[in-house]
Known about the structure:
The chain is mainly β. It is about 0% helix and about 40% strand. The chain has strands spanning about 5-10, 15, 20-25, 30-35, 60, 65-70, 80, 85. The radius of gyration is 14 Å and the shape is elongated.
Amino acid sequence: SNVVLSDAIPTNTDFKVASATFNAGTSTLTNALSYSNDSGSTWTYTPVSGGCSAPAGYDYCVTHVKWTTSGSMPSGTSFSIGFVVVVK
């Protein structure tokens, strides 16, 4: 009934603020987003435009994004997640 997915921001890329997405698709899941600025040790960071001297709209501090879903996911259903980065 719960799915937790975390993904590292790839090397040589920069995280775009407010770009992490969750699409429930055909599932009945709901989602909570979390961010880390310490390689996933903690999940309390809030991305900000210009974070860690990034250009406007990006945050160099974000190292990981985590989607924590809850609800039910009946057999044969699906959902999707994503985020945007820019290649340095």
